[in-house]
Structure formats: C-alpha cells, structure tokens
Design goal:
Layout: H1 2-9, H2 17-33, E1 61-64, E2 70-72, E3 75-77, H3 82-93, E4 97-102, H4 108-120, E5 125-129
Parallel strand pairs: 1-4, 4-5
Antiparallel strand pairs: 1-2, 2-3
Helix pairs in contact: 3-4
C-alpha cells in the first residue's frame, strides 16, 4: 500500500536547464556570426538605380554629403587627404574595392573627383551605393 502512495505523490519533473543552455548557445552563435553594417550618421538621400545589388559590407566607404564634404568611415576628410587615407584603408583591409556613398544632390564633378582619387589610391573597383543597396 505504501508503494501506491509514493507513485501517486510523485509528479513528472522537467529539467529545463539543458534547454536554457541550448538557447544561450544559439543566441551567442547568431550574435557572433551576424555581420553588422556600419551605417554612417550622415543624412544622405541616395540616388536610385534599376540594377542595384547588395553592396560588399567589408569594403571601405567614402561618403559625400549634399554640401560636397567628404567622409571616410564617418570621419570628415579634406579633399587633398582623401587619396592617402583611402590608400591606408586598402592596405590595412587587404581589399581593392571602395564604395562611394553620395547624396543625390552632389554634382557630377565632385563625384568624379572622389572616384578618381579612390582609383589613384589603388582601388581597382569603385562602386557608387544607391538607395536599394544595403548599408
């Protein structure tokens, strides 16, 4: 009789600590493996393009605001320093691609000058980021 009392009194216990461990491991995995795109804090209206494709997230970015000021990775740069700074970024990053993020109100002369400086710095590929492209 005492055997039946013990069986009735014993409920099903669930140990959820392995589940919590797995959830934390998955959380850490996704945090480490996610690529965060560094979006600069500039108020730019990017031009549109029909053939837009996602941009490379690890390429150095040169931004041009509506007033024609140039920024590299969010830091303001004078036009005469642009070529040397891009050259340094390309050497440290190991790539040969530079992305130019320009406001749609920027004149073609300013855009061409920045692209020219990037190519003179050693960039084999210079892309202009549009509004449909990531980052």
């Amino acid at each position: 009789m005492s055997l039946r009392k013990r069986q009735r009194g014993k409920g099903a216990d669930f140990d959820i600590s392995p589940l919590i461990d797995v959830v934390f491991i998955l959380l850490i995995f996704f945090m480490v493996s996610t690529t965060f795109v560094k979006d600069q804090q500039l108020d730019l209206e990017r031009p549109g393009a029909q053939s837009a494709a996602p941009a490379a997230s690890d390429a150095p970015r040169v931004a041009i605001d509506a007033a024609g000021r140039t920024y590299i990775e969010g830091v303001a740069v004078r036009p005469w320093v642009l070529q040397s700074r891009v050259r340094e970024l390309l050497k440290s990053g190991g790539g040969d691609t530079v992305l130019v993020v320009a406001d749609k109100r920027v004149s073609a002369e300013v855009l061409v000058n920045v692209v020219d400086q990037c190519r003179l710095a050693g960039a084999n590929s210079v892309g202009v980021v549009t509004d449909k492209e990531a980052g």
